[in-house]
Amino acid sequence: MRPEGMHVTLKFIxxxxxxxxxxxRAALATVHSPxxxxxxxxxxxFFPHERQPRVLWCGVEASPNLPPLAASIADALxxxxxxxxxxxxTPHLTLARFPxxxxxxxxxxxxxxxxxxxxxxxxxxEFHLMESKLKPTGAEYTRLGSFxxxxxxxxx
Length: 156
Description:
Layout (H helix, E strand, L loop, with lengths): L20 H8 L8 E11 L7 E8 L3 H12 L14 E6 L7 H8 L5 E7 L1 E10 L2 E11 L8
Antiparallel strand pairs: 1-2, 1-4, 2-3, 5-6
């Protein structure tokens, strides 16, 4: 993955008719959280598992308000026909995708040495509506909207 494409997915909505973008933006603008989200990036792992790796990911340990924020985003989109995920929300950063899981055993061995490595931290106060187009060179992302989820502090 290119660094500019790294992100934590809060809600995947899939292919969508462009006519739905304004209602989606309006729904997402209603989502708020009482404080920023703090995230620590720690450890590496694979989806579905290291014996057949398709995706290399970095774990995200977040402040307790991240899961409710993701749930609020999902709740806001349900009236527009986007159902809740059946899987539990598990924040992560996708670092790489492997078309052939048999060709990455050296990467698996190296990643196993970093299972508890701390890569850094970040704080978020906004989320973005992104369009993803898969191309032979990887995913290409376009920002379709940005939403501040923490209201700015009023001056005292």
